[in-house]
Amino acid sequence: MSVGNIGVKGTLKMARHKEQTDAQGALTTSIKIPGTPGTNEKEGRLLLGGDAWFANHHADDICLEVWIEDIDGLIPEESRAAFPNYPKIASYTDMEADVNCRGWYFGPDNKIRVEAIAGVRTVKSGFYLKIKVLKGDATQDTLRLNLIWGDPNDK
């Protein structure tokens, strides 16, 4: 079956995550990509998209950064030079933009839409999808996240 609008063949898989911000409304959360690292060339997940939202919307709620990180040191030390921001592997966020312009506001529908990072559709098992958010009113809240991903081993 075709998954999403990018023509990927495979089985649609869904995942969810929920976590509370700190008292000032800040949160950096991690979602580990399922599977056993190094089992085959296609292990991991095809990141196709998803939505994130807070329980209580504020017009200035922002997602500061979304990235993929090698928390567990899966990339051999001799290969890490290929990733100038290691342990960050790839980022949705334009880190060259002015610090006050990075990230996204949550939309009027209280959602941000996560899409596949260009050139990094397949995220290897064992890496982490990390998301950093901040409540616009600096209050504690709950972030909810739905991910849409596919199994690259399915045909």
The coarse overall form would be globular
**Weakly predicted, low-confidence segments:** 1-8
| Fraction of helical residues | under 10%
- Cα distance, first to last residue? 8 Å
Q: How many separate helices?
A: 0
Q: What class, by secondary structure content?
A: mainly beta
How many strands, what sense, and barrel or not for the largest sheet?
Answer: 5 strands, antiparallel
Give me the Rg, rounded.
Answer: 16 Å
Indicate the proportion of strand residues: 35-45%
Number of domains: 1
H-E string: EEEEEEEEEEEE
How would you describe the overall organization of this protein?
- The chain has 155 residues and is mainly β.
- Helices cover 0% and strands 44% of the residues.
- It has one domain.
- It has no helices and 12 strands.
- A hairpin with a 4-residue loop joins strand 1 and strand 2.
- It is globular and about 45 Å long.
- It starts with a strand and ends with a strand.
- The N terminus is likely disordered.
List descriptors.
155 residues, mainly beta, 5-stranded antiparallel β-sheet, 0% helix, disordered N terminus
